[in-house]
Structures are given as structure tokens and as C-alpha cells.
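Budget justification note: compute hours in this period were largely spent on complex prediction jobs such as the one shown. Inputs:
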Amino acid sequence: MVSFSQWLRSNSERYLLERAQAEMARRYLDRPGPVTERGLGPLFWRRVFVPVYRRLPWGLRRAVIQAIPGSHRQRWQGRRPIRRSPVVK
Amino acid sequence: MPPRIVVVGGGAAGIGAAGSAKQADPQAAVTVYTEYEDAAYSPCGIPYVHGHEIPDFQRLFLQEKSAYREAGIDIHYETRVTALDLDGRAVQVEGEGLVPFDRLVVATGFDYADPGVPGTDLGGLYYVKNIRRAMEWDKVLDTTKVAVVVDASPLGLEMVTALAHRSIETHLVDPHPWPLAEFADPDIIQPVEESWAELGVRMHLNTKVEAFVGDGAVRAVRTSKGELPADLAVICTHKQPNNTLARQARIKLGSTGGIVVDERMATSVPGVFAAGDCVELPHGVSNVPVQGLSGSHAYAQGKVAGANAAGRPRTYQPVYVPWGMVAGKWVIGGASFGETNATALGIPFVMGVAQGISRARYYPGVTKVRVKLLADPGDLRLIGAQMVGQEGIKERADFLAMAIRTGVTLEDLAWMENVYSPPIGALNEPIALAAQNGLASAGR
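Corresponding output:
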């Protein structure tokens, strides 16, 4: 049985990547995107989650990622210091 | 009394941990449990033995078994650890009962993701992992006429090339629009596709495996675009952390399913460390936890975990993931993100792409090198890179990973010094050309 964070991670990664791959395939190869699954679940991730995620500013996305439990929330020295980019609101 | 250090797993991480623990504290009693007949060989070399680039499997072993005995490391082969009793500070070992420890290193590695289709119980499905099984499969390959490789993962790319080199009719089935689409960019992989086509590889992209068909043994692979006859199928699905023992022992797991660790490779349970494909680590640029990296990552993590288990403080760092591999006649590689992953994650970037050459333009053997750099649009610090060529890709990937780690910018790279010697380096380093183009696209 997977935890909520695993479920969220695997689905968000899958559908964000699916969208990016479709764009890249069109841009570079003139090919269709990856094979997709049908159903209400995939529809939610494609039509709701992905567009909403993409509209969030990067700073907010980063905060959401940081909030998910995992190794990144443990003590790690030698991290690259975060410098705010002028494009990040 | 010297500490009793138990290591569960005999792969790169487990053996790295055992050796490092013994080095840190020669008095420590170090015991390794592995389910397999051997420890410390290079599973990454298996595709190259299948492809006949390496003449035999023996060369893949790091040490003779006696070397570990002489080093004072007690390896129990073909011995399964069935449970971790963390309250009782002991592991349950099949045939040995409860074995006490003072410090524990979990290095249980990975499992291939279940393809999730009917027919996975058939014979003729090859999961590349154990060297003894690989030796048996290698004999099968002598009589194999048609093979289907399932999923264009890094291992899938290596196996496709190996089977094609072996003159086996090779089919690659993958649901994505290009091979290695989970982290390589399409323009980087395109020369590989052309090279495979020259080798006679048949690619079935945008195609899903629906079932393995056969009676006892696989005879065909049913896909979303029809049935492919097959003497064998090589399963190269995603590497998932083997976290069964950790989960049962309530060691904290992260969003990848990997064990949560800190810079000492310490888990959520005091005195228990973990390393290798069963853990997750923060990515240095995005801070997103990642899992399932290379053998060199696993070995280094094992060394850090083992030293800490023996009482010598060592720290690992967030990862920037330099990678590279041979695919067809090309070498592809990179560090950190490509354009596809950065787009998926929504990381802002500017990009510089250039095609350079590997040696002086007039020197025999000169080949093309395509470099793509991604940088933060604000401060122009490098955040990712991908490359395709035939020479120097690995060295560039290592260099670029360190450049990303240390905050090198496109400006630094655009005017970098480089070795110029006709047989080994061109006047213009391809990385510098890509950085100059990146500056131009950023309007600087």
C-alpha cells in the first residue's frame, strides 16, 4: 500500500511528464505524445492538476515540493544556495 | 566490545558500506547478508557481455570471495534476511534465527516495476540483475532469433544495442514518443534512433505492451499496435526501491518509496543507516527527492553509511546526477535536468545549444558533439545539460555536474579555457559554444 505522498508524487510526475513529452515530441519530432490512459482519474490529472500546477509561480511550486515529506527535508550540507531569480515572483 | 555491524544487501552499496566500516574501525565485526550466490560484481557490465564487447562474465567480479574473508568481512551468501527487529536490535535471518547488531546498514537495492499485464508468469522473460542468471541467459541468446525489449529505460537502451550487436532481430516497445523519454531530450536521442535503424532494430514507440502470450514460455508480445513474435522478452521497466523490510520495520519512506535518509545516510531509526537504490536523495537544483541512480552513487553512499555506522563521521551531498551511456554508435549523457524534465517540473530556464567537434577538424577520427545547456534565466547559473557524441561525453558530464553544483554560470563557460591539442581537443570547446549561444538567447 502506498502512502498519500507516494500517490501524489507518482501521479503528478507522470502527468506533468506526459504533457512535457507531448510538447517536446511535437516541437522536435513532429510525433504525437505518449500513449495515454482514459478514465476519470487521468482526466482530472490532465485537465485540472497539470494546468493549475503550470499556472503557479515557480516559488510557490518549490514551496509545495518542499512541504512533501522525504529526504529533502532532512539535514543536508553542501546544498547549492538558492538565489532568487528576477523572473521568479 | 567491538561494534557489531550488520549489512543487509551485497550489491555496490552493501559492499561499499562493509568495506568502509571495516576501514573506519578495524575491530568492528562486519557481517553482510546477500540473497545471491555472489557479492560485489558489476551488474551494469552484463549488457556488454551479452553484446560481446566484454568476452566473459568473470571480468565483472570486483574481488574473489577470499578477499572479503581476508579483509575480515563475513559475507553470508544465499542467505535471506526476513525481518528487521529494530526494537530488539536484531535481524531475523533464514536458517540463522535472530542475529543481534549494534548498527545496521540497509542496502536492499531495487526491483523492476511489474509490467502489470497478463503473462508475466511465463518463461522467457528476462530481468537483467543476477550475474548467475545472466550467464544462463547468455546461452539462451545463442539460439534466440527474435527478442522484444520492454521499455526504453537506460538498461533497455543498453540491451537493445547488445542484442543488435549479437545479430538478434530486436524489437523495442515503449509507450513514449522517443526512447529514454523520462529524462533524455528528443534531439539528443534522435541520432541514437538513426543508428539503431542502421543496426536493424525495430522501434515500436507510442506503443504499450498489453500481454505476454505463450504456453509455458513466451512466444509473442501483444502490444497496442499488434502482436510481435518473440523467443524472449527483456523486461527493462523502472527501478523501484526494494523497501519491503524497511516498510515492515516502520523505517520512514519518502514520496519515491525510497528510504528517507539525511546527509549521514542515517534513517529515521537511530543506529540504522541505508544506501543505494533503496533510498531517496534530494536533487541539488530542484530539491525534489530522486531514487534509482547509478552504481557509482550506490557505492559512494554505501561508503558514507558504513563509515558512520562504524563511528567515523562522513557526509554525502545532494545529487546532480551526471549520467552517460552507449546507445547504438553514439554516447549520450548529461547532468541534472534536460529540457523535458525542466519543462515538466516548470523550472524557468534559458537554453544554449551548439554542435561542436571532438578533435581538431582536420584530425582523423573527429566526430560531432552536440551540447545543450540549461541555465537559470536570472543569474545564468547552469541547472542542466545534455549531450550526444562519440568522444568525451562522460568527462563533460562529470565536469558539468560539478559546474552545476558549484554555481558556474553561462558567462563562466562561454569564455572558459580548454585543452587544444589536435588529436584530443578542438580549438572551440563545444560546451563553450553552447554557453555563448545561451548568452545570446538570454539577450546578454
